Structures are given as structure tokens and as C-alpha cells.
Amino acid sequence: MISKEKILYKTAEGALFLSALFSVFITVGIIVVLLFETIEFFKEVPLIKFLTDTQWTPLFEDKHFGILPLLNATILTSLIAMIVSISFGLTIAIYMSEYLKPEKRMVLKPIMEILAVVPTVVYGYFALLFVTPVLKNIFPDISTFNALSPGIVMGIMIIPIVATMSDDAMQAVPNWLREGGFALGASKFQVTTGVVVPSALSGIMASFILGVSRAIGETMIVAIAAGQMPNLTLNVLEPMETITAYIVQVSLGDTPTGSIEFRTIFAAGMTLFILTFILNIISYFLKSKYRERYK
Amino acid sequence: MQEKKLINVIKDNFFPVAGAIAMFISLGVLFVLIIDVFKDGLIRLNFKFLTSYPSRFPEQAGILSAWVGTVWIMVLTALFIFPIGIASGIYLEEYAKPGKLKDFLEINISNLAGVPSIIYGLLGLQIFVYFLKLDRSVLAGALTLSLVVLPIVIVATREALKAVPLSLREGSLALGANKLQTILYQVLPSAFSGILSGVILAMSRAIGETAPLITIGALTYIAFLPTGPFTSEFPFITLAGLKDFFTVLPIQIFNWVSRPQKAFHANAAAGIIVLLVISLFINFLAIYLRIKFEKYMRRK
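YS: structure for the whole thing
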């Protein structure tokens, strides 16, 4: 006989399972939506043109569909952001994990994380109206819209991600490893750079990669401060348009569904999704690697 | 000999000094940002600014439709993510058996947390706006944002459940309660403030999200409010507002920043002050709840 309780129990478990499955539907939804419009896009634009054409002008009369200018801007701004966030974030993480007392650490960590709470549109404002004018004193020929200023600001936003994740990784390094180092006569600096950092390396790398993924997908800072002009250049003082900024630009206009202009944002979105997907997965496995090692 | 000592002194002090400087600079930037925004925006911030619609004339423009839209979206998003986020968290932490399925679900959520929010905007545009024909409505916006922040709630729920001691579960099971009863009457109440802190953290992220809402086509100029939820006729409550167009604070700020006129930048700064105060307040609330939860768990 099946009791009433048993039915209730099974129903509850089923409902919980469906909720957990919901996140799989989201991923499937994203892939289907992007794939559907991207396939339509590539019926009109050959893949080889998309990857090699050096111009991106879908909104003009003379249409070109080369993703390179957008990709170049995305990579350049992310590169600047990572230089800032890795140098600052890792130094802060080492300081917090190895040199600060636990009580101070517990206070400083949430304060650092405020940097990640500030809405990105606020950072955009800051980049355009404060950082760029300041940079003008150093680089007189910097444009109002440029890659350098939003790159730096994005890097500051990502510092807490690198700092807290690297700190977690170093905290997971067991103390006997440090003690072994000290027992062999190594100094604090030698133990930190020679034992702790290498032991936590996979976790630290995971934080870097997650940071890159965040920088590539960041939208508002670059949409506000880097400009909306596709520009294939390595000069970070010039305006350029990232993949994300392009999607915003099209979304703000009135582009009819089904037109090639409309489909470009899905092709651009697909490029973005593939890039971040690869990075997220690498970061996930690096993280689980160090978690397993020091369980 | 003397030189070698000097190098060691430098090495020993490198991380304390460099770390403190790096931390000082990062927090200094935050400080400068806040000062800069207050310097630019405080003059525009008054009661009229909060109660006026946007306008072509910067001095008359306000954020009424923007903050009302933000409240609508926030309330709905919270309603959507609360049940699904917590239920997924419970399943993964309490029911899922270690194996391929659990690994897959975990990788999936970890990846979703890293998908750029603008991609969720593209998803919302196709599924909610066009396929379900919700148009650029409040409902479509809230559903889209719910997807963006759902992973945060799931992860936080799992962390909170993980912190509940095994002894509490065993005690309940020993008294004859089944697994479901144990979760409902013992584990969830103990983990509640931890879960709540996760939901609030998700809200502090959602309130600043701009890109996904722009992508689903939320308008940047709205001079009306969604239909209010209360009516004078029976049943005194209406959901008509769900179908209305909307804008939110960060979109209004973005719109003003993108204009070349300086007067609009002051409006943007004033809007930023409001947005910053709200999102920092929500964030502190989440941190406070988390600290309280951790203390409570340590007593157990």
C-alpha cells in the first residue's frame, strides 16, 4: 500500500528536482535562441567574411560584417582591465591571506567587495566624466571616448573577484606546508612566493580567468566610455566599440525583427557566449582541482 | 653582507606595504567616485527631482517613472527567484546524489553565473518579449532579471544549508521525522537568515543591472507610471501594471550620461546618488544578515 505521506514525499522531491532542472532549461534556452538567429545570419553572411573582414558596418548603406573590430575592442579593454585587477587583486589577496590577522581580514573582505556592488552604469559615469579628463593631463591627445579609461575602471571593478577568490585559494593551503617551509629556514617572503602561491596556483588562475570572463561580458562601462564606433586599432586612446556595446547600440534603436541588422546582435552575442563559456568552464575545473587537493 | 640584509628587509616588507597600498588605492578610488558623484549631483537632488517625469529640459527632469519602475521590477524579481532559487538549492544540497547528474547541474549553474548579463537580455527578448508576447513590459523585464540573478540565490541557499550542523538533522530523524519534515521544520528555519541574505544579495545585483533591460527594449523615455496594483473596485488589486511599459533608474542614468549637455550629467549624478544609496543599503543588509547567520550557526 502506498501511504498518503509517501505520495506527498515523492511529489515534493519531484518539484524540487524540476526547480533544479530549470537552470538547465535556461542554458538550453540561451543556446537555442542564439543558435537559431545565428544560423539565419550565416545564411546571408559567410562565416569566413564574419571572421576575416576588417570592417563592421551593418547599420550603414555599405554593409560589412567583420567581427574583428568589435572583438579587438573587447580584447583590448579586457586586457587593460586584467593588468589592473591582477596586479592589485593578487597583491591584496597575498596581503590579506598571509599577513593580516583573521579578525582584520573578516572586516576588510566585505569592504573590498563594495567595489563589486557599485552598479556598472555608475562606473561608466565615473570613467567618462572623471577618469578620462584626468587621463587627458597625461595623454593630451586622448579622445573623449577611448579604451584606456573604461579598461582601467573595469579593472578596479574586478579587483574584488580576483582578490577574494585568490584569498580563498591561499587560505585552503594547509598550514603544515607553510611550517615545512619555515622549518627549512625559509623567510616569510620565500614561503609566500615559493610555497603558498604555487600551491594555490590553480585557484589563483581560476580567479584570473573568471575576471577575464567578467571583463569580456561587461557592458555599461564600455558602452558609456569607449564609444560606439567600430575601430580596428591597437591605439587605446582612440574610441572603439566592444561586442557588448554594439548590442546595446542596436537595442536602443528601432531594428525590426528578422532583419539582418537584428540578427547581427545574436551573431555578436553568440561570439560572446562561446568566449565566456570556455573561460567559465576552465575556471570551474581549476577551482574544483584545488578544492579536491586540500580537502 | 650589509646589502643582503637590506634586500631581505625589503622582501620581508614587500607584501605588507604593497598590499596596504593596493588596498588603499582601490578603496581610495571608491571614495573619489562617491565624492565626485555627490559634488556633481547634490544640487539637483531634491523632492521635485524624485516626483517629476523625465523631460527635455534638464532642470525640470526627474526620476519618478524610473524609481517606480525599479520598485516594480525588484518586487517581482524577488517573488520569482525566491521559490525557484531555494527549491533548486534544497534539491542540490539535500537530495541530489553524488554522480554525473549532480556534477552536470553544478557545472551548469556555475557557468550560468558567469554568462554575461547582456546574453540574458537576448534570451528575454526572444522568449519573453516576442515568443510569449509580453512586449517590453514590466513582467518581461522582471522575468529576464530573475534569470540573471537566479544562480546567486541557488549558490547562497546551498551555502546556508551546508552550514546547518548534521546533529540537528540526526536529532530530527531520530525522533521519527522523515527527510522532508526534517528539511521543512528543522533545516530550513535554521538556514533561513542565510538564505535571505543570499536573496537580498541577488537583489542588490539586480537593482544595478542595465544591459539586459536595454536589450529587451525597455524604453529610455517614459512619462507615465505602470498601473498601480490597488484599485477602488472589487477585488481591490489589479495586475494590469505588469503589462505596462517601464524604465528603471540605471537606464534613466545611462540616458542622461549619454547626452552631451552638462546639465543632464548633473541629473545623472543625482540619479546615481539615489541608486548608490539604495544598492549599498541593500548590500549592507545582506552582509548584516550573513554575519548574524554565521554567529547563530556557531552557537549551535
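YS: worth flagging: Residues 2-41 of chain B form the longest helix (40 residues).
IM: good catch. Also Chain B has eleven helices and no strands.
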